[in-house]
Amino acid sequence: MVVCTKKWIPMTAAKLDAIDLKILDAIQRDGRITKLALAEQVGLSPTPCWMRLRKLEKAGIVSGYHARIAMRVVAPVATVLMEVTLASHRQADFDRFERVVRDVPEIVACWSVGGGVDYVLKVMARDIDAYQRLVDGLLEREIGIDRYFTYIVIKTVKDEIALPVADLLPASA
Question: Do both 82 and 144 map to the same domain?
Answer without folding.
Answer: yes
